[in-house]
Design goal:
alpha/beta, UDP-N-acetylmuramoyl-L-alanine:D-glutamate ligase, globular, Carboh/pur_kinase_PfkB_CS, phosphotransferase activity, alcohol group as acceptor, transferase
């Protein structure tokens, strides 16, 4: 299996723009049912916070050794302070958080017993940011565009990436020969027209194309539809246990999964888009980049929660194949 070696003297400079959030994990034990209602009583043994969404993409970039940066928005609330604390721990190339007084910072609380998730509680708002805030995000990118090799647009449909903003970002990046890699939960991908690469999963590709993917024929049809709608150069579709598909230059190619154990798929899509961007920014071919992303995904799905993969872990995985 291939080994991946990247030049240490030139770190890929990749900026993530999109919806940042906090993943809040509460862990505990349970041996009784509440007398108040037929629910389990969890004795909390610990809790921790971690960056999610666009923040998890940034974590993956940093784990690979990239010079990752981030531009996002958050609320003017207590959770926003947690976001700043977690970002500071990562020591990114730079980060900009635009305050939106009209929204809450997204936080997702997961309660688990013996690594079994009992419930998830979400606090979030899902409306698009105003054009004024979008302009602030754009200006932050514009000021740094000469220091960036690629931009990842991480769209969790929480409102950071309005059509107005996306159009301005893609035009700016194309004008400076900066690649744009899109990972979007949004059904209508037309707002990402002229992006470099679009990376949906199988379900997202089906919804975006309106084609039910059941075999390679419908997979290729869906990819072609997405490529036509977005005018992108490449479509990469993650297929879970069936691996990863590449549609480029009118042709479909598939690579089998490298996962041995699947424990938790949380954040695997973030790992894939980060890995693709990192590999492409380091001048790997799209085929090699998908091999790298496949390997990185195999590492993280064997871990608990939103995890990351390092270059050593990836190369060790391929050594053992």
């Amino acid at each position: 299996m291939p080994q991946f070696n990247f030049p240490e003297h030139k770190k890929a400079r990749i900026c993530v723009i999109g919806d940042i959030m906090i993943d809040h994990y509460i862990n505990g034990s349970c041996d009784r049912i509440s007398p108040e209602a037929p629910v389990q009583v969890v004795d909390v043994t610990g809790e921790f916070y971690s960056l999610g969404g666009a923040g998890n993409v940034l974590k993956n970039l940093q784990a690979f050794g990239a010079q990752g940066s981030l531009i996002s928005l958050n609320g003017n609330d207590d959770t926003s302070a947690i976001v700043v604390d977690e970002l500071e721990k990562l020591n990114p190339g730079f980060y900009e958080l635009i305050k939106d007084n009209n929204r809450r910072t997204t936080i997702k609380t997961r309660v688990s017993v013996n690594r079994h998730q009992l419930i998830r509680l979400d606090k979030e708002d899902k409306f698009y940011c105003s054009d004024e805030i979008a302009d602030e995000i754009y200006q932050s990118l514009e000021a740094k565009i000469m220091e960036i090799d690629a931009v990842i647009l991480s769209d969790y449909c929480k409102g950071a990436l309005s059509s107005y903003l996306v159009d301005k970002i893609i035009k700016l990046c194309n004008g400076h020969n900066v690649s744009t890699i899109v990972d979007s939960k949004y059904k209508d991908l037309s707002k990402y027209r002229n992006a470099t690469l679009i990376k949906p999963n199988k379900k997202e590709a089906s919804l975006a194309s309106g084609i039910n993917i059941v075999d390679d024929v419908t997979l290729e049809q869906a990819c072609k539809k997405i490529a036509d709608v977005t005018a992108c150069k490449t479509v990469v579709v993650t297929l879970s246990e069936d691996g990863i598909a590449i549609y480029s230059n009118g042709k479909l190619d598939k690579k089998p999964t490298k996962a041995l154990d699947v424990f938790d798929v949380t954040g695997a899509g973030d790992t894939v888009v980060a890995a693709l961007s990192f590999a492409l920014a380091n001048s790997l071919s799209i085929s090699q980049a998908c091999d790298f992303a496949n390997s990185a995904a195999a590492i993280v799905v064997a871990k608990f929660g939103s995890a990351v993969a390092t270059l050593d872990e990836i190369n060790n995985l391929n050594n053992n194949k």
